[in-house]
């Protein structure tokens, strides 16, 4: 039974937000979301029937929907981009996309809106007739138009960085990238010959990965909507060629001299020649010492946590508009990056507004982590690299990655020291308080991180086993902050208001704050912290924010049907957090705390009521206000079962 806390005007249930009486909805009736798959509906109906037959009165539908359906796109119904250019299709008869322009236009659904964001912003939409807002830029003779004046003004501006170069992708897949620098660093810092190697993981997965990509390119059904946006004539090497390349690479690696004092110059063909002006530098031949690496001032800044799935580039752009200082890409698996997976490299993209941007790597082997750090440093534009030592997912933990590194100190040390040899940017660490419940070990690792030369560390105030079942332990974060001095040290956990941000900063002595779920529920929290005020943001302002996000999504993922579907998917994922926000004007006592859930209530207008709904069917309605109606047969299964039935 939940405990009761006595307030100034009566008794209030612990963990439940205090809502003004005039906004409470005691007659709320649960309903099933129509957009759910049939299996989810059947489970809800069974649950409802059990309740009506005298089941336990407090039994709730809870847990996660672990087998959520993936979006699928039929390539045969998508138009080939060659029809919008003067160049012939380089795939010829083997092209899996449609070349029947008349048939495509005849069967194409009605446009989703009157204005194309890409055309009105940049003067040109590269998706042409495939754009779901094509009427804006289509002439009477079915040609894709261009606003030359606006296009010339915007085409010279770089919108985002870190696109995966096709030549680099081929070199990674064929294992032809020059990792001599990484090999030298590994030989220098390995305490003993490792029995387990990340290269073995890549060798084991390379054939199956390439086979799956071949199938994805040959099948009519696209199983990865992000990867298949790019298609060309470059063929993936066969299994025999891959094995021969691996053998040649292994023979070449054995010929490397094991002289730890020698300095090796990278000879990778993927590194373009740099034309310098003024004084010539010797950074390409002389390794930078730690004190000579690029400096990043992390202190007293607001840091947006690297959020898997929802921490995408359009979301980070929204947070930048609200004042966040430091952003980081979603967690990227180093083995997938070294295999040249397009979807994994997409996580490293950086928008030009992200002035302090880093990438977060997850891995458990020193060789793959070091090689990944090298290729990222040599081919991307970033300010720091963060090592994920906090991921609690079982699949990651069982492979010795994420939070498992906290219990493997020797390997952790080798990973850090080897990575520092091949990068010219700061190497940071994000970790948890420990692995097992009620057994904190972070305070034992922090002094070692200082000795290993780590300039900044972030601590999430929970163990791996706790997940989100308890509040973050800021008393322990305070203890670790003292042990971390003079290293830059950030605290993370449950911050959702400027009052709590001030409290945590003043009482713990941390250098800065990282925000995760608080920024998902109310991204304007960064504005509140910087302006020191509670922002009673209106439902109209929140809808404008969602419209900007949708526009950024159409720019990032595309305005064709596939891009619209991807944008809608991530918008719905974000709405699963946004609905938890309680407007300031409805609360009896501000601010809202992250562990407080509201009773059913109505907003100050219909839109505010809709945005407060926990039913995923209402999230779909909001998406239709921004991206047009969903296609026939559309389904969306929320991550949490409780959101299927509200």
UniProtKB/TrEMBL annotation:
The keyword Transport does not apply. GO terms for biological process: mRNA processing. InterPro entries: Aldolase_TIM, DUS-like_FMN-bd, tRNA_hU_synthase_CS, Znf_CCCH, Znf_CCCH_sf. Pfam families: Dus (PF01207), zf-CCCH_DUS3L (PF25585). It comes from Owenia fusiformis. Its EC number is 1.3.1.-. It catalyses: 5,6-dihydrouridine(47) in tRNA + NADP(+) = uridine(47) in tRNA + NADPH + H(+); a 5,6-dihydrouridine in mRNA + NAD(+) = a uridine in mRNA + NADH + H(+); 5,6-dihydrouridine(47) in tRNA + NAD(+) = uridine(47) in tRNA + NADH + H(+); a 5,6-dihydrouridine in mRNA + NADP(+) = a uridine in mRNA + NADPH + H(+). Residues 57-73 have a biased composition (Basic residues). SUPFAM superfamilies: CCCH zinc finger, FMN-linked oxidoreductases. Belongs to the dus family. Dus3 subfamily. Residues 19-77, 205-231, 247-269 are annotated as: Disordered. CDD domains: DUS_like_FMN. Catalyzes the synthesis of dihydrouridine, a modified base, in various RNAs, such as tRNAs, mRNAs and some long non-coding RNAs (lncRNAs). Mainly modifies the uridine in position 47 (U47) in the D-loop of most cytoplasmic tRNAs. Also able to mediate the formation of dihydrouridine in some mRNAs, thereby regulating their translation. This is tRNA-dihydrouridine(47) synthase [NAD(P)(+)]. The keyword Repeat applies.
